[in-house]
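INTERNAL AUDIT FORM
Audit reference: QA-55
Scope: verify that the stored structure record matches its stored sequence.
Auditor: D.O.
Record contents follow.
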Amino acid sequence: MQSPVKAPITYNVMCLSRCLVIAVAMILLVVSPVMAVAAPQPATVSTRVDGEKEFIKWAEFNIPLSALKNALNHDIKAHKNGQILNWVELLALTGTKYYGNWKRYKAKEMDAIAAKMLAGESLEDLRTNKYYDFFYEVYHTVLGEFVGEYAIEAPDPQDSAKTIVVQKYGLKAFYPIAKGYGVSQSDDFMNNRSYGYTRPHLGHDMMGNIGTPIIAVEGGIVEEMGWNQYGGWRIGIRSLDTKRYYFYGHLRKDHPFNPAFQKGDIVQAGDVIGYMGMTGYSVKENVNGMKVPHLHFGLQLVFDESQKEALAEIWIDTYDIILLLQSNQSAVVRDDSTKDYDRKY
């Protein structure tokens, strides 16, 4: 699946920027033997100054599933025990320790940091270097609304024909595929794509069957809904805090969207927003240009509004996030009169 781009220059500039960062780092290591043995600096530390306004220009998300699960479990367990442990803070402290290199991750080291947090040690005391604020902002921008208290319908244990509203705490973001529908997937972020021109794949493809209900991962505002040459029928949802833009592409020919929603509407996490298809790769609308039915799921970070439509948009690898979300799937029901689906709870 192709990335939701508008012009080749977007990718050329992004790739050039990343190559320049690597080239400069290599030069510094050659001319300064001391730097070669010093603690590695996070490659993602880069800011843009616009007058008095400063914001993150580029970031990556490379936290493995095992670390995401561990941090989430610490957060939920603390909440059950009447304590507070913010999983994003735990991830940021751990990421700071590794200077963003999560290949060094060890569960026992995160566990030790969590124990210190629960014992009352301050974030200031737990920071191991000056980059905590950067990692916290990046991780919070990605995950800040994924966990917390929420209300959701559930079967009434006293009457199976009824539902009740229950209060819960935990993962409140949803898997983008409806419960009961299978997909195949692999980490294909940054793989080459060639339609129109050669460029990296800035999303995550989930292969399945045409008509599979697609679920809103997070609540937000429908910012885009319509045709895109690369992504086919697509829907774009901006989180309510405006920091995340979710792209759901290659939706079904002829009937791509849930008619309950229009551009500008607010959707809730877990809502059915559309249906899997294979549209795209065509200037002409409503064309099945893909070889295999699949959902292209993309997540763009927006630290400043100037980055939303820019030469260097920030799209992140969501593979491990998607695997984490598998534990929270939205059940759906079919309306036989319209043949559309809606969430069950």
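Auditor finding: record pair retrieved intact. Confidence is low (pLDDT under 50) at residues 1-48.
Action required: none
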